[in-house]
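re the bet — no i am not wrong, look at it urself. input seq straight from the record:
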Amino acid sequence: MEKSAVIIGGGLGGLFTGAILSKEGVKVTVIEKNPTVGGGLQSFRRFGETFDTGMHVIGGMQEGGNIRRICEYLGIFDKVHVMDVDPDVIDTLYFAEDRKTYKIAQGKEGFVNALSESFPDQKDNLRAYVDAVYSIVNELDMFYLRPSQDFIFVHSEDFMMSADGFIAKYISDRKLCSVLAYMNPLYGGRANMTPAYIHALISVLYINGPSRFAGGSQLFADALRDKIAENGGEVVAGDAVVSISSEEKVITGVTTKKGRTFTADYYISAIHPCSLVKLFDDPSALPKAYRNRLEMIPNSYSAFTLNLKLKPGTFRYINHSAYYMSRYDEIWNFDENEGRWPLGFLYMTPPDLDQGEFSTKMVITAPMTWDYVKQWEDTTVGRRGEEYEKWKAECADKLLDCIEELYPDFRSCIEAVNTASPLTIRDWYGVKEGSMCGYSKDCNNITLSQVPVVTKVRNLLLTGQNCNVHGFCGVPLTAINTSEVILGRNYVLDKINQLEADE
């Protein structure tokens, strides 16, 4: 008998989970509140340009990469447009404190050699650090899509350390420690809290080689949506689930804002767990201790984004990401930036499908805490008032002042400006406090910050960035975990590996 599943939320987690289940014969219905599916994969049009909302750089899409293998299994890899960054410079990192720029190169040797140019006495330490990073990741079978029968995992000392403590264990130079931590805003890094394995996962993905979506990440979301439909599923966009009915800890159906009711054998939440809890007609369907725990877990910080349309032929295209940091000793303080914003930011020129010598746009994303917008938290889009608009303009100016340290008179290249704050992220994605990366992971309390994909409601599962690891790598891997609760342990992993064996 055919199984069925209703998935609440059409972001990366909901779409990947839906694509996997529908491929394996499950009747899938994905319900997304926004008119456009994709979550962090969404793109939008302003000033005649396409801007991505959250997915700027991706890992695992190189030949043999884990996410590429999942895409090949789903049959969508040839439907997306991915371009690799320059291998000799995958990232640049500028510190305003001493006006020093560091270049990050692809591959283990490239990575070590590039940083050794600035830190020659740390070359041996860098080699040991890179080996340790890869050793941590090798403890995670799922990262390499290896089937596993282990239910109890015993990890190394390095695995359970804080990320900043782990780096300092191998690197004796203070500045180099900060350089190696430059990507921590991408995973909501916090000093003495973020686990080393999170840092290691992201680092390995990038050392192996990052890629970018050409023409916008929406194309990837659309490919997943189309695959679900091709497999007999349905993706309902522009309608939000507003209530969940249950009896004796079993969900009996969900109702949407437009009055539609959907029933299934399984219900999968791809939205923030705190938002999910509020949908239950009977809150006691989820134990009080579980609900309290979900509220207790701290969320990662948010971000302020500047989307710029550039005048034709004024700014050369950069085929890598670039980072601006204020001070070396502030590298882990993005969650404590009150009065010192911006401590740093990521900036990049997103590629078009027919990318030429010059860029048509730039995106600047600066971590920001919820405290900066808390005074407007009860407002809605377009009705936040003049003070809010004035504040956004001031934030934009601060970022542009920093950019002009690197590119004098950069403002003359700008044709139009669009801004987004943590409020934008909260309202568009439906995430608590505009969190970029979902729940924060805490090496001091792994049990608290890990939310299992199974719940106390017998036919309710979770997926998405609040389980396990966030981002373009972590969310698809969690989608496999969720899907295998229904399909059977290692079912999907065996299919992926068999596909490669047959080639």
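see?? The CA atoms of residues 9 and 271 lie 6 Å apart. told u. also The radius of gyration is 22 Å. so pay up
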